[in-house]
Amino acid sequence: MNQRRPGFPARLPSAASPALPAGAARPATPKAAGSPLPRIAPAPSGVGLDSAAVRGRMVRRLADSGISNAAVLAAMGDIERHRFVDSALVNQAYEDTSLPIGLGQTISKPSIVARMAELLLGAPLVKTEGLGRILEIGTGCGYQAAVLGRIAKEVYTIERLRALHEKARENLRPLRISNVHLILGDGMLGYPKGAPYAAIISAAGGEGLPQQWCDQLALGGRLVAPMAGPDGKQILLVVDKTTTGLKQTVLEAVNFVPLKSGVA
């Protein structure tokens, strides 16, 4: 299956945030006066949804729930989730709930996005070298990719559904993110051209762990993905690649869309 990696030259707007881990990307300074301004999506209707205050309240809830990494909390506060959901759902954008994005797919709830991002930062390799290049399986609407782009040096994100791939492109373009690369392809095959990855994260749950993901994970890297447990119900799985093999840790129950192969 051919995989297409379109370029995505852009940058996030400058914003003050806590210190990032070593190796993590920082937003660039704004363009000089006279440069063309990026197209900004219209502000959604609904009281307060275009303000930092409502995101601030979401971040405080995340911190109260146990998310403690400053870079993750800053990223969750910076990225405007309401820009990634349908206009009819903007009033629910900062609730801790998943929302439909079309084609039977969903945007993950903020708490699970933050939880999985924080888990990535706990990898042995990341602790010593910072979060370098990562691979996201299942771009969806692009929200998680935007968050990851704030804490990682480089993000490759792959989506099998062409319509969602294009939707993510439209959602991300106004944010002008330079370190997120969108790929149309079969996520079960990973993306070998970008390997090895310091971390791999999946937004879809399968019956087993694809061997390609394990092969493309760097030594000392970490994979975080939902996976079917012995009873068929999904659990959050953390896999660390060590010199002696793969170390698996089973965490809490989760509920993600199913992992599928092919491009549609």
Automatic annotation (TrEMBL):
Top-level division of the source organism's lineage: Bacteria
InterPro entries: PCMT, SAM-dependent_MTases_sf
Keywords: Cytoplasm, Methyltransferase, S-adenosyl-L-methionine, Transferase
GO CC, one annotated term: cytoplasm
Disordered as annotated region, ranges: 1-40
Location(s) in or outside the cell: Cytoplasm
EC numbers: 2.1.1.77
Keyword Metal-binding appears in the UniProt entry: no
Principal location listed in the UniProt entry: cytoplasm
UniProt entry tagged with the keyword Chloroplast: no
Biased segments, Low complexity type: 9-33
Entry's Gene Ontology molecular function annotations: protein-L-isoaspartate (D-aspartate) O-methyltransferase activity
GO biological process: methylation; protein repair
SUPFAM superfamilies: S-adenosyl-L-methionine-dependent methyltransferases (SSF53335)
Sequence similarity: Belongs to the methyltransferase superfamily. L-isoaspartyl/D-aspartyl protein methyltransferase family.
Protein name (record): Protein-L-isoaspartate O-methyltransferase
Source organism of the structure: Diaphorobacter ruginosibacter
